[in-house]
Amino acid sequence: MRPLFLFSLLLATVVAATAVPRLARGDGDDGVCGATPPDKMALKLAPCASAAEDPGTAPSGGCCAAVRDIGMHQSTECLCAVLLSNTVKHSGVKPEVAITIPKRCNLANRPVGYKCGHYTLP
């Protein structure tokens, strides 16, 4: 009986030790955008297509709403992952232009200076 008890205690300790850091971050088994992968989350930024290709184009209201939603309801890390996702890259969007959209949307709570891959949010 004693070996079974010790094994159970060891197993419980290992499970707790690996789960606590994930729970403290609030993400459980999820990624930076929760249960939705950044590539799928990027589809929400479809209204930003023209603004992401041309820095001179003002982002639409729908684009700014999508960026605000991802940034506020997900996280800065999620927004960064979405802006640099394969979905965005394969759509022909220039990351150096896409990364400026939060500023061009005049988002007051944008994380100025946040390092996003090789880019810094303005």
TrEMBL record:
GO terms for molecular function: fatty acid binding. Residues 33-112 form the Bifunctional inhibitor/plant lipid transfer protein/seed storage helical domain. GO terms for biological process: systemic acquired resistance. The keyword Signal applies. The keyword Transport does not apply. Residues 1-19 form the signal peptide. Keywords: Signal. It comes from the Eukaryota. This is Bifunctional inhibitor/plant lipid transfer protein/seed storage helical domain-containing protein.
